[in-house]
Automatic annotation (TrEMBL):
This is Daunorubicin resistance protein DrrA family ABC transporter ATP-binding protein. SMART domains: AAA (SM00382). It is found in: Cell membrane. GO terms for cellular component: plasma membrane. It is a peripheral membrane protein. GO terms for biological process: daunorubicin transport; doxorubicin transport; response to antibiotic; transmembrane transport. NCBIfam families: drrA. Pfam families: ABC_tran (PF00005), DrrA1-3_C (PF13732). Belongs to the ABC transporter superfamily. Drug exporter-1 (DrugE1) (TC 3.A.1.105) family. Residues 12-242 form the ABC transporter domain.
Length: 333
């Protein structure tokens, strides 16, 4: 966290947050800080505590222990004042399908007490910004999933909040719609918005986040830039394709002896990968180890780790292809 007097202060601070549901400890001493004007990406397996953290920080849940502030306001004691200074978009588009897109945005503006004239003007601005002008005066029930997600994000921006919380904003979108939202998010951050982003798409975090916090079992287990996290798990990886099924076990055993705990195996594709340091010289060593054990290679290559590698190494899970309910989702306080 930034010390008093630093040029950049923290827009979001969480200290020792705990949230339980019966015997389930959704947050277990979560600590987090997000400097103003930056993007923090929250990564973690389904059920790790990401959505619970966002709900606490947006005043939707009260923590059992710990404290948190957003823009200097306490999420419990200053909840009413805080809500007027943040925007939030959840995993599912929170729009009224019986209203038009324009009416949805105007309603949000009125709830923020923008006044009738300003609410209407802001609705028109956002419809244009999110490429929804042509559909803006049609009922939302006829919108595609991507259009609903864009409208939901537009709703989070009606009051032009300095701090924005996006909980898996591109879940369920096709690649084109996802890229479009990434562009909008990048524009917001370039304009000085502070963003806390949870995502199941590691490419999304790699592209958008200034820093990434990996959460598991309700606490932060690693934090840093994408490059720092990749370096943390071991500089590079050698990827190998083994064409002969009978040599698979021999190769796996040989590589585990060479680099214990750094081997990933995918029997279905016939591929192995092993964490190494030393670049090209390590690649030569790995090939030599397999040659000495009589293993034939179909293909071999050297690459830097991806966030997928980071995720799997730190959590023991691959990033889910589907979004699951977080701890306590739907639970009543």
């Amino acid at each position: 966290m930034s010390a008093e007097g630093d040029a950049v202060s923290d827009a979001i601070v969480a200290e020792g947050l705990v949230k339980t549901y019966g015997s389930l400890r959704a947050l277990d001493g979560l600590n987090l800080s997000v400097p103003e004007g930056t993007v923090m990406g929250l990564l973690g397996p389904n059920g790790a505590g990401k959505t619970t953290a966002v709900r606490v920080l947006t005043t939707l849940l009260v923590p059992d222990e710990g404290r948190a502030t957003v823009s200097g306001l306490d999420v419990v004691n200053d909840a009413a004042a805080l809500r007027s200074g943040i925007g939030a978009s959840g995993q599912y588009a929170a729009v009224d399908e019986h209203l038009t897109g324009f009416e949805n945005l105007e309603m949000v503006g009125r709830l923020y007490h923008l006044g009738r004239k300003r609410a209407k003007a802001r609705a028109r601005e956002l419809l244009e910004r999110f490429d929804l002008t042509d559909a803006g005066y049609r009922p939302v029930k006829g919108y595609s999933g991507g259009m609903r997600r864009r409208l939901d994000l537009a709703g989070a921006l009606v009051a032009d909040p300095p701090v924005l919380f996006l909980d898996e904003p591109t879940t369920g979108l096709d690649p084109r719609a996802r890229l479009g939202l990434w562009e909008v998010i990048s524009e917001l951050v370039a304009g000085g918005t502070t963003l806390l982003l949870t995502t199941q798409y590691l490419e999304e975090a790699d592209r958008l986040a200034d820093k990434i916090a990996v959460i598991d079992h309700g606490k932060v287990i690693a934090e840093g830039t994408a490059d720092e996290l990749k370096d943390q798990i071991g500089g590079e990886r050698v990827e190998l394709a083994i064409p002969d099924d009978s040599e698979w076990s021999v190769a796996n055993t040989a590589l585990n002896s060479y680099a214990p705990g750094q081997v990933r195996a995918d029997r279905a594709t016939g591929k192995l990968s092993v964490g190494v340091t030393g670049g090209a010289s390590a690649l030569v060593e790995v090939i030599g180890v397999l040659k000495d054990n009589g293993v034939t290679l179909r293909d071999v290559g050297l690459r830097r780790p991806t966030l997928d590698d980071v995720f799997l190494t730190l959590t023991g899970h691959e990033a889910g292809s589907e979004s699951g309910a977080d701890e306590g989702e739907g639970a009543q306080q």
